[in-house]
Amino acid sequence: MKAVRYNGAGQAPxxxxxxxxxxxxxxxxxxxxxAGVCHSDLHLIDEDQGFPAGFTLGHENAxxxxxxxxxxxxxxxxxxxxxxxPWGCGRCHACQLSMExxxxxxxxxxxxxxxxxxxxxxxYMRVPDARLLVPLGGLDPKLAASLSDAxxxxxxxxxxxxxxxxxxxxxxxxxxxxxxxxxxxxLQALAPVRIIAGDxxxxxxxxxxxxxxxxxxxxxxxxxxxxxxxxxxxxxxxxMVLDCVGLQATFDLAPRILGVNSxxxxxxxGGGMHEFRFGSLPFGCELSIPYWGTRSELMEVIEMARxxxxxxxxxxxxxDDAVAVYDKLRAGDIxxxxxxxxxxxxx
Length: 347
Fold this sequence. Notes:
The protein has 347 residues and is α/β, with parallel strands linked by helices. The protein has helices at 40-46, 93-96, 141-144, 152-161, 178-190, 202-210, 222-232, 248-257, 295-306, 322-330, and strands at 2-6, 14-17, 28-37, 55-56, 60-68, 80-83, 112-113, 116-117, 124-127, 133-135, 170-174, 194-199, 215-218, 238-243, 258-266, 286-288, 314-318, 337-341. The radius of gyration is 20 Å and the shape is globular. The termini are close together.
């Protein structure tokens, strides 16, 4: 079968023929219906993140159960499932709480499917344990695949901040890409706040407005953007800044727009830095860097999608287009989320 393979830091991914997997004891084979193309893959490809070369990319995946290994119960062949992304040990305290994203025994070199282990940019994917699969309940896998990261990551971040958000507050979402366009929808569903969407791309700002953002700001000029945000909030500043980019430009902007007793949450992997010290942020401000989300939160995200509260806006591509799609993503030409959909011809 065809698969999009990671060839090491600094090397372009390639489409190669690999063996179709079969399930061992306790394992499940999923026929992939959609694999999201995530911006974090570019950091994996461009920078040394500690992952060994030689695995199939794709950590946002959904499809149908194809085959069950010995001892697997509770799943049926043909059932639609989303694949939970971060694979923990399954035994530590965090994993027992479904928080495998904070597994106490995880290693950087093997973080999950598409991150050290073979992922979903192929017709079939081996999943090591049935606990990592969440039923889709009728959702189309190609529309649901990116819920496992593009929705789960901001959902986890927003839930952590909810106790500090109240009516009349403003949340600024920086970066309206895969995560950001979901964050706008999630904030609408979860919090009684006004939403400002910030980006440098006018098409993405238009998308945010269509999705319900109360105001949009072009952040290309940081001083002008900060002034506009302070005017919108009548000088109070943002109760939360959710940075889905993480570049130095957004790290520099966030401290200028945060209000007192606020939350600055960074989920983007752009490599920006902040010199944290007394006085570098407003009084009461919390700075956090959450990672992905829990298995139970993925269940919640899927339920929200089933109820029509959120949806991933996708651009569909064939598996053969994967390398070109990464180039489009790098150029900022993808609005919403690109999703690879394998065909019967791919194996």
